[in-house]
Amino acid sequence: MGAIPHTAGVYFRVWAPHAREVYVTGSFDNWSKTTHRLRHEANGYFGGNVPTAKIGEEYKFYLQTPFGNFLRNDPYSKQMTNSAGNSVIYDSSFDWENDHHFKIANWNELIIYEMHVGTFYRKNPNVPGNLYDAIEKLDYLKELGINAIQLMPITEFPGDLSWGYNPAHPFAVESSYGGPLGLKEFIKAAHKKEMAVIIDVVYNHFGPSDLDLWQFDGWSQNGGGGIYFYNDWRAETPWGHTRPDYGRPEVRQFIRDNALMWLEEFHADGLRMDMTAYIRNVRADGNPQNDIKEGHDMMRWINHEIDQRFSGKIIIAEDMHQLHYVTERTQNGGLGYDTQWDAKFVHTIREALIQPEDTRRKLQMVESAIHHKYNSDAFRRIVYTESHDEVANGKARLPEEISPGKADSWFSKKRAALGMVMVMTSPGIPMIFQGQPLLKDKWFSDTYPIDWRRMEQFKGNVKLYQDLMRLRRNWYNHTRGLRGHHVKTIYVSQTQGILAYHRWENGGKRDSVVVVLNFYNQKQEQIILSFPATGKWTTHFNSDSSIYDTEYTNYGTKEVVTDQSGKGVLQIAPYSALILSQV
Q1: How many CA atoms does the CB half-sphere of 379 hold within 13 Å?
Q2: Are 501 and 368 in contact (CB under 8 A)?
């Protein structure tokens, strides 16, 4: 499909079942609309070769239909001049060097960084950042401890500013971000630094603006979107009446081809599918009468093929309905996603940390969120306290929510750090959102870039994140249990505001980890815990360390020696966390 360069020109192919005649026109023929006619191949497909067309030239399809004549961009175009401009003949060849040897880390070792290219790093504050700019900050991410970058949608969208969830041309990489070449260079550079790249894709709706797919060949029903969309009540989404028609084989193929393109041609290491609940159900409300069976089937089909062809690639669902079915294997009747964003974790933990009154923090709910699993597998969920959804649309960054207008207050820093300890020590795949280590305040916006001067201002907070990530990845070979499946509560007291749990993979020295959390603004001088084993337990992390902030007091136990029954006594500072193991 699309424009296919070869030794004897460029072959063009497009699907337009209601067209009488289809031509391709472009800079190669001075935009003559009817010079290069495409022949009708079968089933609404038109194709033909243009010997004089060359890579880099612009083009469109000219459709003559019973509903009028239309100039349309190529639905499969991988490069656009801009969202309202022209398709560009693109050469997919690229020197990947030895990139085919790269493999994403094991899922129990992953730490994901969600990145919005336009605001992540702007060399010119008045111009959105691009993928080449982002390459310059990869060393920062690697040093932090990140080994997977999840890019918010990078397909061509209207204008130069967007979150990306309004894809106008699903196969084209956003021109202001550097186009398809920029994405390949970014992925190759990330792989060289041992970081995977996951692409955020949007299949629950397209557009709704600058959308050449809309009534592509003139035909539609009920004022709907035509051949690429449902033309009845199933078209309705919160973002416009532009839900793709998952029941049409050609549309299903279009989405399948798109998903596999990122993994195959661009060497992406996984996909994050936006709001899958709106693919399987018109209103994402769980009402069976609103179910879209074709959507269920399409997701299973795509995920099964990815499993068969791209072993090791990770496919993430943003479903947010806490359904085991989403991450159940296709052969067992599930949708076949490898993991899913965990609504139970993020909402529960944020609520507990934002709550201003200590005694109203519901520690049993926090405990339940930490223990939560899908399909009896710890790594079937993504755990986080911030994502693009949690820090916008009327909500702010966690430190800002804790102390509005005072995101750098002691309370904000302390409780936000507690949240990050839970992210890095709970069973699951941890994720952070761009700017979190820099204690970014306010809310997320595509016009409000990261201020990298905060690196120096909050260098202690950056080190806190770095230390937690190194413990999470067992950097020093004494916290292996943080990569394991297992968790057990060993102490919980609503009266004291203390929650402690044991994390382990196989158990024993350098494996078993004890995490102690104090959710109250009071130090505890004598917490008696039953440790998993007798002997000496060493503290590897204390969030009250003055290394992380000059306001912190260094209060807390450095080591615990248990009695013969395994009981040990420790001290912990207000709103603080300790991480211990036996070395």
Answers
A1: 17
A2: no
Query: 270-273 and 314-317 as β-strands: parallel, antiparallel, unpaired?
Result: parallel
Mean pLDDT across the stretch 387-406? 93
Mean pLDDT estimate for the chain = 97
- 42 φ/ψ angles, rounded to the nearest 5 degrees: 180, 155
Neighbours of 561 (CB within 10 A): 11
- The CATH number that applies at residue 34 is 2.60.40.10
- What pLDDT, on the 0 to 100 scale, is given for residue 126? 87
Task: Give CA angle at 465 (459, 467), nearest 5°.
Answer: 100
User: Quick count: other Cβ atoms within 10 Å of Cβ 123?
Assistant: 10
- C-alpha dihedral sign at 550, 553, 557, 558: positive
33 inside domain: yes
Contacts of 499 (CB under 8 A, 6+ apart): 363, 366, 367, 489, 491, 492, 493, 516, 517, 519
Residue type at position 347: H
Q: Does residue 63 belong to any structural domain of this protein?
A: yes
Whole-number Å distance between alpha carbons of 320 and 42: 41
Whole-number Cα distances in Å, 312 to 106, 260, 308, 378:
8, 14, 10, 17
Going by C-alpha positions, the residue among 471, 442, 474, 461 that lies closest to residue 552 is 461
Q: What's the structural domain count of the chain?
A: 2
Q: 544, 556 in Cβ contact below 8 A?
A: yes
Residues in Cβ contact with 93 at an 8 Å cutoff, skipping those fewer than 6 apart:
none
Cα separation, 46 vs 213, in Å, equals 16
Radius of gyration over alpha carbons of the chain, in Å? Answer: 26
The SS3 assignment for 238 reads coil
Q: Which residues pair with 12 in a beta bridge?
A: 3, 48
Output the domain CATH number for residue 513: 2.60.40.1180
Can you read off the two tokens belonging to residue 361? 């923090």
Tell me the whole-structure pTM to 2 decimals.
Answer: 0.97
Asked if residue 424 is part of any domain, the answer here is: no
The pLDDT-based confidence of 213 (bands split at 50, 70, 90) is: very high
Please, which contacts does 129-138 make with residues 24 or more away whose CB atoms are closer than 8 Å? 129/449, 130/176, 130/177, 130/178, 130/182, 131/177, 131/178, 131/182, 131/183, 131/185, 131/186, 132/178, 132/182, 132/185, 132/186, 134/186, 135/185, 135/186, 135/189, 138/189, 138/190, 138/193, 138/195
3-state secondary structure of 351: helix
CA 41 from chain centre, in angstroms, equals 39
Q: Helix, strand or coil for residue 117?
A: helix
Q: Identify the pLDDT of residue 501.
A: 98
CB-based contacts of 293, cutoff 8 Å, min separation 6: none
According to DSSP, residue 28 is labeled G
Provide the percentage of residues in the chain whose pLDDT is more than 90. Answer: 98
3-state secondary structure (DSSP) of residue 77: coil
Q: What is the span of the domain harbouring residue 500?
A: 480-581
d(CA 9, CA 20): 25
> How would residue 394 be classed by pLDDT, with cut points 50, 70 and 90?
confident
* Residue 11 located in a structural domain: yes
Of 72, 104, 122, the position where a domain reaches its end is 72
Which of 28, 47, 72 is the last residue before a domain boundary? 72
Distances 133 to 118, 182, 388, 400 between C-alpha atoms, Å:
10, 10, 20, 28
How far does Cα 298 stand from its chain's mean position?
21
What are the start-end ranges of the H helices in 330-458?
343-354, 363-371, 398-402, 410-425, 454-457
